[in-house]
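<instruction>
Derive C-alpha cells from the sequence
<data>
Labelled lines for chain and fold:
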Amino acid sequence: MNVQKIPYALLIGVQLGLFIWSSTQKEGILPFLLLVFSLLIGSRLSKNRKTSQEETSCKEALH
C-alpha cells in the first residue's frame, strides 16, 4: 500500500504547486480546477485504501 502513496503524493504535490503558482499569476479558473482535481485524487486514494484495509481485516479474521 505504501507503493501507491508515493505517486499519488507526488501528483498532488505537483498540482498544489501549480495551484499556488497559477493563483499568484492570476490565471483565471485554472487554480480551482487543479484544486478540485487534487481533492478528487485524494478522496479516491482514501477510499481505495479503506477498502483494501477492510479486505485485509476480513481475510485475517477468517484465518
